[in-house]
Specification:
The complex is a heterodimer of chains A (284) and B (446).
Chain A lengths: L2 E10 L2 E11 L4 E5 L6 H8 L7 E6 L2 E2 L2 H4 L2 E4 L11 H11 L4 H14 L15 H13 L5 E5 L7 H16 L3 E5 L3 H7 L2 E6 L2 E7 H7 L4 E6 L4 E4 L7 H11 L2 E7 L3 H15 L1
Parallel strand pairs in A: 3-8, 3-9, 6-7, 7-8
Antiparallel strand pairs in A: 1-2, 1-4, 4-5, 9-10, 11-12, 11-13
Chain B lengths: L3 H13 L2 H26 L5 E7 L25 E5 L3 H10 L3 E7 L12 E4 L6 H22 L4 H9 L17 H36 L1 H5 L5 H37 L1 H18 L5 H7 L7 H7 L3 H29 L3 H7 L1 H19 L4 H6 L6 H8 L6 H29 L5 H7 L1
Parallel strand pairs in B: 1-2, 1-3
Antiparallel strand pairs in B: 3-4
The chains are: A alpha/beta (284), B mainly alpha (446).
């Protein structure tokens, strides 16, 4: 495991924000940290970034406990993110990059590359307050990835993004993974979880209530439902009966129809999320 | 990973680059130079040639003499700037005042009922008050004539008179050890100005720290920065960066004001050399040397305004370093607390509530200032100038009057000790508050 979270606990006063939270993130994967608002995701991310300390538990990065020095190799895009409004865009990006340990020269040349890529070079000398929200988000993204971190943490990266920028961001995340980065994604956007994430952990009321690979989880929540499309264009949703499997069902169907497509309908992450969160609440 | 230098640099550069910084940097020395120059110019600047009508109904000042020759020693003597013109009646003089632009005033001495000497004279003017020189010249000439009359009547010679008046006792308020004169008024003003300057500086730069913290918080940029910079480093970087801005501004103020003042002195060098000379002579005289003679000479320099002599008597070699010390440490003490207040606020409006407890000691000193000025070395002044939270303002008020060294050192030492304690407390508040929102609302619920 690239990042291992073991039995983390954190309280704020009487409020338990995290209780016995454990999960692992594989190297080079996209990991989804899911959960409803107030579940403790941001607290978990802040603990990984060593912004706050856990009361108990262990955090291992490549097998070693995380130190402040290692945090430098993390790229973190917080949920609530901002920029100094009065500062010039380029200057500010250089400052934030320098805080991450890049030299002024290195930061400038890398920024030039990214600004060209995102087509915002013209804005280099403008004050941030003149930028549209979308452009500010591009700048924030660039600053997050500029020092080429091995571990990237995006907290609600899609919130407030228009579809064009959201797509751009998605593609960039996938490209970062292709280049070998490990990515933790905290999001409410379940469609993007299915699209991007390899594994997830679902946190609800300070506990991990579900974790594992996205495919396995969806399969384990299979409702044994199949979608069949036949040659006259008819779409059917059929569940095989208890004692027969998909093959028997298909054989039965083939007797009467010419099959165009046959596939299992897996529950969406959205359904699983809602079921898991509501189920937990129902139990309480 | 210590990013303090980067934070300091950003705080410094973004502020020093602002136009408002340079405007303030230029305006203050200009104002100070004007405050310094205007009274001197008003007191000493040569006036235009002017005419004063004299209506003397008493005859003591030569107003009833038949011909203009008369007894010259009792008449008003015209000078280079002021021409005295006699008129027989007030009506005539008034017409002159109305019609002639050169006439600025009428000296009117009422007729006497008996042989007694006149005790009242009136200087009439129209619209504009006659210049100070005119008023003092008229006064001087009136007194001189009257005095000569009395001296003659009693048969006292000029030499005898000089001897009598030369023996008067000159009471000075003076430091026993240094032999320096008190010049209480000038020192009160200076102490007041210095205390207010420290007060304003702490407030101004302290609230800059606070606004900076709130800006980072309400912008949410702090969320981005906090994973590369420890909260304590971020806070200290901001506090130190703004301290350097403040010091830069003060240095520029001192430098520019100094240049302006020296400029004023050079362009009026005769006046100022008189002032310094008189001050030196009086210092020697009070040390009991054979300077009585010189003291008499110095009476010739009576024109030198007290203000200038008072300023020349102040020990700026002590005041300037003490000012910088109390500015730096007073600011540091408060700035961290202002940072903590900022960290607890979500918006600029919240800050007024959270900064209130921080500002109370400062406001208290300002309110107690009149009482302290009554007795700059009294118990109240002593206590307030030693307690770290009030000492920067209170001590600056006392410094021009001279403060015992042990008190100064004690006050400085306590301030230096208080600074890390305050910072420790502020850092704790800052760290726990900077990523939390709605603290004010939670307070209100409780």
């Amino acid at each position: 495991m690239f990042l291992e979270v073991r039995n983390i606990e954190k309280s704020f006063g009487n409020f338990k924000a995290l209780e016995d939270v454990s999960f692992g993130v594989r190297e080079g994967s996209v990991f989804g940290l899911l959960g409803p608002n107030g579940a403790g995701k941001t607290t978990m991310i802040r603990i990984i970034n060593r912004i706050i300390r856990a009361d108990r538990g262990e955090l291992l990065l490549s097998g070693k406990p995380i130190t402040d020095e290692m945090v430098r190799s993390i790229g973190y895009l917080p949920e609530e993110r901002g920029l100094y409004k009065k500062m010039r865009v380029g200057e500010q990006a250089i400052y934030l990059a320098q805080l991450k340990g890049l030299s002024r020269y290195e930061a400038t040349s890398r920024l030039r590359f990214w600004f060209d890529k995102f087509e915002i070079t013209d804005w280099w000398n403008r004050p941030v307050e003149q930028l549209s929200k979308g452009m500010q988000q591009k700048v924030q993204f660039i600053v997050t990835v500029l020092h080429e971190p091995h571990l990237l943490i995006f907290d609600e990266p899609f919130s407030g993004f228009d579809p064009v920028n959201a797509t751009l961001l998605k593609n960039e995340i996938l490209e970062l993974r292709r280049k070998g980065a490990t990515i933790i994604l905290s999001t409410h956007n379940m469609a993007s979880v299915e699209e991007l994430c390899d594994d997830i952990a679902l946190i609800n009321s300070s506990h991990v209530v579900l974790s594992g690979s996205v495919n396995e989880i969806r399969r384990s929540y299979s409702r044994n439902l199949f979608e069949v499309v036949v040659d006259n264009g008819e779409v059917m949703q059929i569940s095989p009966s208890r004692d027969e499997g998909a093959n028997e069902l298909l054989a039965e169907l083939m007797k009467n129809h010419r099959i165009v497509s046959f596939k299992e309908i897996l529950p969406s992450m959205n359904d699983i999320f809602v079921e898991k969160v509501l189920g937990k609440e129902a139990k309480q | 990973m210590n990013n303090i230098p980067l934070v300091i640099r950003r705080e410094y550069v973004t502020r020093v680059r602002k136009k408002s910084f340079w405007i303030l940097t230029l305006i203050v020395p200009i104002l100070l130079a004007l405050v310094y120059a205007i009274p001197i110019y008003l007191a000493l600047a040569p006036i235009e040639k002017t005419v004063v009508m004299v209506v003397d109904e008493s005859g003591v000042f030569g107003g009833l003499d038949r011909d203009d020759e008369g007894r010259s020693d009792s008449r008003f003597n015209s000078t280079d700037e002021i021409e005295y013109r006699y008129a027989a009646t007030l009506d005539y003089a008034r017409r002159e005042l109305d019609s002639d632009d050169g006439v600025t005033a009428i000296v009117y001495i009422r007729s006497r009922a008996s042989e007694a000497l006149p005790t009242d004279a009136c200087l009439y003017y129209k619209r504009d008050l006659p210049p100070q020189q005119v008023r003092s010249d008229v006064d001087r000439q009136l007194q001189r004539t009257l005095r000569n009359r009395l001296l003659q009547a009693h048969g006292i010679s000029d030499d005898e008179y000089a001897m009598i008046t030369g023996t008067k006792i000159n009471l000075r308020t003076q430091d026993l050890e240094t032999g320096r004169e008190a010049f209480t008024e000038v020192k009160t003003v200076l102490g007041l100005v210095l205390a207010l300057l420290i007060y304003m500086a702490i407030f101004m730069f302290g609230s800059q720290v606070m606004r900076g913290v709130v800006e980072e918080k309400s912008n949410r940029i702090v969320e981005v920065i906090i994973c590369s910079v420890k909260p304590f480093h971020l806070m200290m970087g901001k506090v130190i960066g703004i301290a350097l801005v403040g010091l830069t501004q003060f240095m520029l103020w001192v430098l520019l004001t100094g240049v302006a003042v020296v400029g004023i002195q050079l362009s009026n060098s005769d006046i100022f050399s008189n002032a310094t000379a008189k001050h030196e002579i009086t210092e020697i005289a009070t040390k009991g040397n054979e300077a009585t003679l010189q003291l008499q000479n110095s009476a010739d320099m009576a024109d030198v305004p007290q203000l200038v002599e008072g300023i020349a008597s102040i020990d700026f070699g002590v005041i300037v370093p003490v000012f910088f010390f109390f500015f730096v440490f007073g600011y540091l003490l408060y700035a961290t607390l202002f940072a903590a207040a900022g960290a607890m606020s979500d918006t600029d409006t919240d800050t007024s509530i959270f900064s209130l407890p921080v500002t109370i000691p400062l406001l208290a000193v300002i309110l107690l200032m009149p009482a302290m000025l009554e007795a700059p070395s009294g118990t109240l002044s002593q206590v307030l100038s030693i307690i770290p939270f009030t000492s920067p303002v209170a001590m600056m008020m006392r410094v021009p009057f001279g403060v015992p060294l042990w008190e100064l050192w004690l006050s400085m030492a306590l301030l230096i000790i208080a600074f890390p304690l305050c910072t420790w407390l502020a850092a704790k508040i800052y760290r726990t508050s900077i990523l939390r929102y709605n603290i004010l609302a939670k307070f209100r619920k409780k």
